[in-house]
Queue: 2 jobs
Job 1
Amino acid sequence: MFDGLTGKLGDVFERLKRRGALSESDVQAVMREVRVALLEADVALPVVKEFITKAGEKAVGQEVLRSVTPGQMVVKIVHDQLVEMLGAEPEPVDLNAPAPVPILMVGLQGSGKTTTTGKLARRLTQRDKKKVLMASLDVHRPAAQEQLRILGEQTGVATLPIVAGEQPVSIAKRAMTVGRLQGYDVVMLDTAGRLHVDEALMAEVASVHDLVQPHEVLLVVDAMTGQDAVNVAKAFKERVGVTGIVMTRVDGDARGGAALSMRAVTGCPIKLLGVGEKMDALEDFHPQRIAGRILGMGDVVSLVEKAAETIEKDEAERLAKKMAKGDFDLDDMAAQLRQLRKLGGLGGVMGLLPGIGKMKKQLAGANIDEKQLAHQEAIISSMTKKERKDIKLLNASRRKRIAAGSGTTVQEVNRLLKQYQDMSRVMKQMGKSGMLKGMMGGLM
Ligand code: GDP
């Protein structure tokens, strides 16, 4: 469903030929086209506006990396903005609650709710080895309960025995009791849908919700319905709360924009995609992958990423040289921290040095956590230039000021300084012994 944008944007990016930093007029021209393409892909107007503003701000003045074209650079910026607006990280269905974990499936009739209930139950059973019980609360549509029972039989997932004439809240209550007594890990409740959002539907879903206090409320929407799906999501979110969205019929030829609007307008994470009628046609939602599909320019994106890595490598080499000479200051440490954060782990300078595994661990062990890296960067940037070059200046009152300025504590500032001292001591020793020089061979 995501082919729409690809071809259109390709031409636009081609036209950007000038080197150097991206100019405002170039970026504006491209963003105009991106705007049209997004609207044509069925992205809601306010979402498009926000997208264009943010991507534009990131692009203007951006240095074009060596070895890529300005057009490729913009593709990468547009891609990254797509990823960010799609939620950045995948958010899987969460079962982290006391068993039986209640999952409430909600949505309009025909959205693919029952099918998705079967798919997810099957996956939880087969892949995640969970004991799952499914129950249909749909007493309105004839044969809905029977449909779920048959799906259960096909997929080998247990379903709650059907009791004729029983009302939704009672069925839900019975399902939870059976779930508890018979040791189920998960109880999936498939609620009734309607053709449109109406009060009766919402009231019924709300009363079941109040009773079972579901850990996940998964709203199933049909991607083919585009902007309508977004409105449906808004309505459900306001009335019963939604913890995640499942978009179905992503295998069809719907324009991909609905996914982007959905996430941006409702703020709810898209957790799963339905990609066909078969029981195994269920995918996790990966913002990275979807952004790639919307743009259809995965090659360009990885090209720019590689170019960026080369730049990082140059920077790492510069730092490594400074280290070997023994003049490694807090600015260098900040640069190092930035790299660590970008690489999501230990890399950069240390990664370039062969045979340094043990020290790697020593330096990394404690502080690979993202948040901590960000704190450490903040601490360093709250120091004056002078302080960064000479940490002897950092008396108690200055440390206090730095902690306040960086939103951290004096203890954290002390810890960072200690770490810096440890790092530079190790480096000096290595420099003296010629070890660092030896190891870095070609770099020096
Ligand atoms: P409900 O009324 O919301 O429970 O909808 P159903 O689960 O009965 O699904 C309605 C129809 O949509 C069925 O024919 C399903 O096979 C079909 N369907 C559900 N999910 C998908 C999907 O991801 N892709 C495709 N192509 N069809 C789907």
Job 2
Amino acid sequence: MDLKERIATELIAARERSVGLTLEALDEPGLVTQVSPLMSPLVWDLAHIGNYEELWLLRAAAGQEAMRPEIDNLYDAFEHPRAERPKLPLLTPAESRAYIDTVRNKVLDSLEKVPLTGGPLTEGGFVYGMVIQHEHQHDETMLATHQLRKDGPALLDPSPAEPPAGDVALAGKEALVEAGPFVMGTSDDPWAYDNERGAHTVDLPAFFIDVTPVSNAAYLAFMENGGYDDPRWWHPDGWDWRIRSGKRAPAFWRREGGQWLRRRFGRTEPIPSAEPVQHVCWYEADAYARWAGKRLPTEAEWEKAASWDPAAGRKRRLPWGDDGEHANLGQRMMRPAPVGSYPEGASAYGVRQLLGDVWEWTSSDFRGYPGFRVFPYKEYSEVFFGTDYKVLRGGSWATHPMACRTTFRNWDYPIRRQIFAGFRCARDV
Ligand code: AVJ
Ligand code: FE
């Protein structure tokens, strides 16, 4: 398949999922209602996806005029925080559909004419990759919105793929990553974001990192050992959060008849003990790690464990190599796979499930790499640099493979729990 065919195929695949999560999943009131002030009404995400595509693929790449300049402001994430989006005069679901369809048809027409060389924006199809990844990122966000709905829908997919068996014997096991330099970030991945660039050498002391993410069973042991009541384990700001919020379990968990249950897309089920814990915030992950006598990995440690091939002295794009897929990604399973799954997906250090299943909190703040340069706009990453956000790595079961690689960086506030995030631990040697 040539590059333009691949771009068209990926654009179409992303749209199928966006429509499945919105117009095909809910009626009009469901699409325009806000389920949580943390999230947009889904109809906002849908038209925002189209507006971003218009901005970058029709105006910037193909040099076309704005189709509806009056709506740009409504769908600019920086003009209107999520909490105020339901009060905006948004396009209706039907108008949104008509708008995104028109944009898409023009994009597919203009793709024939736009050269994928000659400037950094279109070189190697970068801006198309950016827009495809953007749509997939919103698809994951929209799924998190569905998870927040009390009434479902119970199943967004009639027959999700069956999870693999896993290997709980690996829970809590550690891999040793020897001291020495590795290459962090990338300068040659054509669709990488500015925050992943450029490749630079980082020299790390030796460390241990868990072979699997922390399971629900392990997290429950922390809870039952009084983890939520003991300030010794908590970051001072984390203890403030713990007291102020009153939380004593991951989001969507509740206790009933002496048993912990969780709500998953409108259905309630017993806690699956071998599944990686998800919907914990950074403060909870940090507290668990201290209780376990460990700590969260830095993002450099995570990336070295995930990508470095010490025998070859080179970096891998994916933990298991440069292509193929040995991970639970792309909303196929609709849940994390049990810990110890995907032996073929292990990194060179034998670490499993680094991509997929759950986003993994790291101890690191979100900052630019040495020599960081904004590309192509500062609101993707640069405006978030500083000490407010913690980095998450690896993608979840809800992340599309196009938006997931060993260099990909995600970030969120340390109190956020609606994302599909868990963690693994590390420790000094
Ligand atoms: C990279 C997931 C933090 O959702 O805020 C979507 C991705 N940027 N639209 C976000 C994004 C612009 C971003 N995260
Ligand atoms: Fe966006």
